[in-house]
Amino acid sequence: MTTISDILEKFYADYEVKPYISLERDLEAWLLDPKPVSKRNMELLQDGLLAGDIILL
To answer: pTM (2 decimals)?
Structure first.
């Protein structure tokens, strides 16, 4: 069985900030067609926000 820690280690090991993964997510189904968060969206900007946060706004 795959855990959230396994996903973070496999796909996000070199990310400055790790994305949130819901405990309700079906990890096995996600692994069939993984779409990791872009590393660019998880980099902290000068003001402390993530680029991905700004995109969502």
So the answer is: 0.78
Do residues 35 and 8 lie in contact, with contact meaning Cβ atoms separated by under 8 Å? no
3-state helix, strand, coil in the chain (%, to 5): 40, 5, 55
- Four-residue CA torsion sign, 24, 51, 46, 57: negative
Instruction: Tell me if 46 sits within 8 A of 20, measured CB to CB.
Output: no
What span, in angstroms and rounded, lies between the C-alpha atoms of 55 and 57? 5
Residue with tokens 């590393």: 39
Residue 57 clears pLDDT 80, i.e. is over it: no
Q: What is the mean pLDDT of residues 10-37?
A: 94
